[in-house]
Target: 9708_t:CDS:1
Amino acid sequence: MSEKPEIQLELTNYELAIEDDKMVTSLQQKKENNEHQEVNVQENLKSSELKKENNNVAPMRNFYVISFGYIFFTLTDSGLRMIVLLELYDRHFNALQISIMFTLYEFFGVIINLTGGIIQNRQ
Model:
């Protein structure tokens, strides 16, 4: 790798503009008659594109993992509920009894989550 030379400038006579879309850095010198002399500096496109790609890959990977987890959980949870529902129906429970069982299951799930949240909040 070659070393990049460092450039030091006095900021009083220069404006620095960075355009991310074009990957161009322009340096404009202010003159007394408001004319601008522009110097364009091309960045190393391969390394900057690689940095952009690496910055975008990690959040998207996390998004896909979390989304897949939620979808997988929804499918397995729904499948288990259907298996329980069909098993209770095979054991000759009527619809009202099954709905009361599911309602109690959900109600006590809420109670357990609230209790866990209160205990965690106290610590």
Remarks:
- The two ends are 53 Å apart (CA to CA).
- The first strand starts at residue 14 and ends at 19.
- The beta strands are 14-19, 24-30, 36-42.
